[in-house]
Amino acid sequence: MDVRDMDSSSSTFTDITSDHGKSIIHIDIDCFYAQVEMLRKPELRSEPLGIQQKNIVVTSNYEARKYGIKKCMLVTEALKVCPNLKLLNGEDLHDYRAASNKIFLLLQNWKSPVEKLGMDENFIDVTNLIQEKLKSTNIGNLTITGHLYSEPSMDCPCGCHTRLKIASQIANEMRQKILDDLGFTTCAGVAHNKLLSKLICPLHKPNDQTTIYPEHGVSFMSTLESVRSIPSIGSKTTETLISHNIISVSDLQQVSLDVLKKHFSSDMAVRLKNLSLGEDNTPVKQTGRPQSIGLEDSFKTVSVKSEVEEKFTALLQRLLILVREDGRIPVSLRVTLRKKDVKRLSSHRESRQCQISPSIFTINSGTVSVTEAGQEKLMTIIMRLFNKLIDLSKPFHLTLVGLAFTKFQERMTGRSSIVNYLMNDLSVQSVLNIQSDCDTSASSMDYSAVSPSSSTTTDLSDAEVEPSPKKPKKVTWIAKRRCLSREDVASPSKLKVGELRLNSKELEKVSELRLNSRDRSLTPRASPAKDVSDNSDAMRDIAEGGNCDECPSYVDKEVFNALPEEMQQELKSMWKNPSNSDMPRAITRNMNKTKPNSIMKYFVPQK
Ligand code: DCP
Ligand code: MG
Ligand code: MG
């Protein structure tokens, strides 16, 4: 049957409001760190390869797994089971992180929400994409691509089987593209929720994919031997469950909600119960930029200040590479230490942070960098914070040092910046979302994940030592702070583009952008210096232009498509009927009187 032939009464095939309405893909890279190394050195492919961090083999290639090498095995043990195991040091995460970001970026091509989880996993919600595909798909011929967990006894009336079949094909396309473009083999899980898609994903490892229909969720979950296999159940919850003899997922399925409520809050009890039954309604949240970028280094003990300084210097060097990749200017720095309590034989973390001046950083051709003098300044601040955390008159023993930039000055090229809508060459930056990867690795260097037990103090005195970030400067070319669209700009605070802190270099850049964007978007033939209020020529250009149906030829289609729907409509109607347009008037008129949603607001210089 062709879905286009169906009338509205048979629209059950597209009932995405049902409990099975969503279609989620989970993709996990096979032996991720090992594949990064094998891509670098293809001759490693045929050898058993282990990736070592400190004295642990954090992962290995599938060749090594044949010998019984398991994740997180001690190196000594691994060499016992596989004496010819080739070991590579995997403590520098830079290349793994870069590969991880490339995969994440590639997945943006499907124009669906992508949520990055750790280094090598992504959830993609393809519900809407499938709705689009259904318009031109002959659903009679659809089959599952890859494995199906269990054959259905009947078709589900909501149409979820059809949708998941299409999702399995999309998952296959994604995996093929990751392989073709980046060289990684992957596994995928396809289901109507995140929980099942993640749990079903490794069923046919490596390099394969599995789909599960909703009606098999309960039976699949009952095969999981430990409640700990459920992703959102942590060690504390597992302990509590085990202490009440609830060990397997099947135990959790069978225990009554009332019993669970005795040991957990009511919400938690319901959530646990639902999870055990394979039910999960958490949405796939598009991954954004990390709130902080940090690195940590752990070691046995360091008890000498000069050694601590060396550790921080090394960390800072590597952290600055991450900052350059991220592209934002940090304005706050946090130092973390883990002190060994010799008496209690335990460790705990403490942090201290302070504001730093954005002038420490410079932007050259769009790249954030720090001069040597800037690095010295940062080291002075770091050691000052260190001195506040440690009483140097007494012996100290540290087992970890960490550095993190915790706040950033948003640049004009951020996701919610109007610049993205106007500039051809910058639009790509709107999808450059680099996530703070909280790797599961317990050792070595990584994006910082602050331990829940750690304490952070904001150091105000240091904020005074270093000049605090400059007072907001108005960026004059955006006359009004206006809402772009509910989706593009999530919170009103993000709209305050004009209030962003900018140093003088950035302001220069912004005014360049202003001129360029004005040139390209509104006054293609006008001189850059010409005031937009005197742009009757420009208006004529728009009115006359157009070798395509709706956009004039000089309009960058990508930029146009990125505009909120209402602005697109406004522009289209203006192009169609320029004489009715209020645009020229809007430009010369007082800003407050213009039509509230007029895109022209963005182009009018501030009085
Ligand atoms: N990792 C780590 N410490 C761990 C577990 C994993 O440093 N305790 C790192 C190494 C892995 C990467 O994270 O390559 C991804 O973790 P996965 O659990 O997905 O493992 P792999 O991708 O290595 O193998 P698989 O093929 O089983 O997915
Ligand atoms: Mg993996
Ligand atoms: Mg993984």
Describe this structure in words.
With 607 residues, the protein is α+β, with helices and mostly antiparallel strands. The protein has 3 domains: 1-29 and 93-288, Reverse transcriptase/Diguanylate cyclase domain (Alpha-Beta Plaits, 2-Layer Sandwich); 293-476, DNA polymerase, Y-family, little finger domain (Dna Ligase, domain 1), CATH 3.30.1490; 489-602, no CATH class. 35% of the residues lie in helices and 16% in strands. It contains 21 helices and 17 strands. The chain has helices at residues 32-40, 62-65, 75-81, 94-107, 127-134, 160-182, 194-200, 217-221, 235-243, 249-254, 257-263, 266-276, 305-326, 372-389, 419-422, 460-465, 504-521, 536-544, 557-562, 565-576, 583-588, and strands at 24-29, 49-53, 56-60, 73-74, 86-89, 114-117, 121-125, 147-148, 186-191, 209-211, 293-302, 329-341, 346-355, 361-364, 367-370, 398-409, 455-458. A 6-stranded mixed beta sheet has the order 6-7-1-9-10-8. The protein has a 5-stranded mixed beta sheet with strand order 11-16-12-13-17. Strands 4-3-2-5 form a 4-stranded mixed beta sheet. β14 and β15 (367-370) form a beta hairpin. The N and C termini lie far apart (62 Å). The model is unreliable at 1-12, 412-454, 461-548 and 579-607 (pLDDT under 50). One magnesium ion binds next to β1.
